[in-house]
Amino acid sequence: MYNIIVFFHILGKASKVGGEPGITRSVLCRIQVSENPLIYLLDTPGVLSPRIESVETGMKLALCGTILDHLVGEDIIADYLLYTLNQHRQHR
């Protein structure tokens, strides 16, 4: 989100990003995104609990990319997505 705002508003340098968690190690800088009202963004490292409480929570984290795909398995993640869509009748 941070880099999208920086890119579209041409506000300065974007933060370093990567295809896996752990790229942001500290607060990099303060970026002004609006003058009126005065708004700043800070890019901070994400925090993930060292213990995942349930399989369902782990699958949700894997589905949104918080956990590396190869740790769970891409087929299992895809199966969980289809299961969830079927549970909510969100398929066509």
Task: Present the secondary structure layout.
Elements: H1 2-9, E1 30-35, E2 38-42, H2 55-63, H3 69-72, H4 74-87
Antiparallel strand pairs: 1-2
Gist?
This protein is α+β, with helices and mostly antiparallel strands. It has helices at 2-9, 55-63, 69-72, 74-87; strands spanning 30-35, 38-42. The chain has a two-stranded antiparallel ribbon with strand order 1-2.
Largest sheet: 2 strands, antiparallel
Approximate helicity band: 25-40%
What fraction of the residues are assigned to beta strands by DSSP? 5-15%
Low-confidence stretches: none
The end-to-end span amounts to 29 Å
Query: What is the ordering of alpha helices and beta strands?
Result: HEEHHH
| Average pLDDT metric | 76
Q: How large, in whole angstroms, is the Cα Rg?
A: 17 Å
GO cellular component, one term: mitochondrion
Keywords: GTP-binding, Nucleotide-binding
Organism: Engystomops pustulosus
Protein name: G domain-containing protein
Question: What does this entry look like structurally?
Answer:
It is a single chain. The protein has helices spanning 2-9, 55-63, 69-72, 74-87; strands at residues 30-35, 38-42. The protein has 2 domains: 2-42, no CATH class; 55-87, no CATH class. It is elongated, with a radius of gyration of 17 Å. By secondary structure, it is an alpha+beta fold. The chain has a two-stranded antiparallel sheet with strand order 1-2. A hairpin with a 2-residue loop joins strand 1 and strand 2 (38-42). It is built from 4 helices and 2 strands, in the order H-E-E-H-H-H.
